[in-house]
Amino acid sequence: MQELSLRSLQRPEVIASPWSFYARLRREAPVHFDPCLQSWLLTRHADVASALADPRFSAELRHETRPGGLVAAQASMHRALRYLDRHVSFADPPTHTRLRGALAPPLRPGHVRLLERCVAVVVAEALDELDAAAAPDAIDQLAARVPLRVIQQLLGLDGVSLSTLRRWSNAWGDVVAAPGHIPTADRAEVMKAVDELVDGLCELVAEHRRDPSRASITGALVGAVADGALSEDELIANLMMLVTAGSETTANLIGSAVLELTRNAALWERLRADRTLLGAAVEELARVHPPTQYTARTALEDVEVGGQPIARGQTVVLILAAANRDPDVFGQPDVVWVERPNTHRHVAFGQGAHRCFGAPLARMETRLVLDGLLDGERPVAAGPSRWRLNANLRGLDSLPIHWTRGQVVRAGAAA
Ligand code: HEM
To answer: Which residue from 42, 157, 356, 393 has its CB within 8 A of the most atoms of ligand 1, so it is best to mutate?
Structure first.
């Protein structure tokens, strides 16, 4: 099984279609030791779901202390890795509980419902741009734009252009998603953008301190620092996290959803006929095209997974995308089927203590985009699409399409 390494996901053709790679792993070696990564790869739904919920696995990265971590990292990575270690997603209790307690409340479903009107305006503007563009691209004008604009408004980042924000978000996404979280080459461009992101967020925090009346999630988190719930480093680290998690993943879901609609006329017609299915469609699209392909944990003690002993201190990579297409759980797993009775068992948003608390926002943005697109003609591919070279945060960089607004008589309201 030597050749079955997560490293092969770095090849562009595998990023474009990793499904046979995952299927082979799941079939031939569902608990597989990857010698290149020195990590176990889990691909069965049962194993991935139970590891996500198992407190014997730690989410901590500890770059600062682990061998080959911060000490060995290139100088340009030091500042970045210090912040990475302070992300809520890479913390265990009690730190995790404290950070999540400060970060999650503004994104609870009740708060997110209040944002629906604002998000609908952002979507309408993006669709206007798509409709008017000389060379419409579903990523530039829609999939990337909508979540970036929403997170820009939520964090109070109005002074930063969307293109800069996209560059920053992509760069931090490249660091966060790299296997072992240490990019192997000296990617000067990436690190320069990460430095700019940190500087930009420090300035954002300073602005909020100068003007405490500014209402934004940043303002609430600055208040949490004053109350002692967050340290200054944790504040910056988790703002970095919100920029990338809040835009990149949702952009990837919307982009993959549009691509699916260009290829799947039956799905388009089904949704067009009954928009109450949109909520279910978003879940199915997240199951089939997970924007986060995998996450990692470290065993805190000796454990057994699927009959395979895993020693304390070893790393496991939980391949969410493989679990979501496990035929033992989802019949015809590669098919987007909006009436599927058990879609809710997918793990695209994680599970357990670290489950995504941005999911209600991501779901709403994606649903509103699809709803808006359905008001026009079915999008048609207008040229080759291109995937970003990020195997974990898997998403399109470019998707040229033809799409025109139409006068649609709605059959059924949006869910
Ligand atoms: C389609 C969009 C999204 C997907 C697929 C997604 C996926 C995920 C997954 C799989 C996890 C769990 C990671 C793990 O267990 O290691 C997670 C956690 C997280 N997500 Fe999302 N996410 C999305 C959107 C968002 C948005 C919009 C935000 C914020 C605005 C967000 C913020 C977070 C945060 C802060 C965590 C860490 C939670 C914790 O560790 O307690 N995500 N997300």
So the answer is: 356
How far away, in angstroms, is 408 Cα from ligand 1 center? 34
Answering whether pTM is above 0.90, one says yes
Cα of 60 from ligand 1 centre, angstroms: 16
Give the C-alpha separation, 333 to 56, whole Å: 30
Q: Indicate whether residue 61 lines ligand 1 (CB < 6 A).
A: no
N-to-C CA span, the chain: 45
393 CB contacts (<8 Å, ≥6 apart)? 173, 176, 177, 248, 249, 252, 291, 292, 293
Q: By the 8 A CB rule, do 291 and 256 touch?
A: yes
pLDDT band at 408 (very low <50, low <70, confident <90, very high): low
Q: Which ligand 1 atom sits nearest the alpha carbon of residue 361?
A: 27
CB neighbourhood size of 282 (10 A):
25
Q: Is the CB of 148 under 6 A from ligand 1?
A: no
Q: 19-66, pLDDT tens digit by residue?
A: 999 999 999 999 999 988 889 999 999 999 999 999 999 999 776 655
What are 305-338's pLDDT values in tens digits? 999 999 999 999 999 999 999 999 999 999 999 9
The CA-based angle 187-190-195, given to 5 degrees, is 120
β-bridge pairing 57-58 and 294-299: antiparallel
Contact of 360 with 324, CB cutoff 8 Å: no
**Residue 65 near residue 82, CB atoms below 8 Å:** no
Residue 59: closest CA among 239, 315, 301: 315
> Whose CA is closest to atom 25 on ligand 1?
358
The strand ranges marked E within 208-361 are: 294-299, 303-305, 308-310, 315-319
Please state whether beta strands 315-319 and 380-381 pair in parallel, antiparallel, or not at all (unpaired).
unpaired
| Ligand 1 pocket residue status of 292, Cβ below 6 Å | yes
Beta strand 315-319 with 294-299: parallel, antiparallel or unpaired?
antiparallel
The mean pLDDT of 346-355, rounded to a whole number, is 98
User: 249 CB under 6 A from ligand 1?
Assistant: yes
DSSP 327-372: TTTSSSTTS--TT-TTGGG--TT--GGG--TTHHHHHHHHHHHHHH
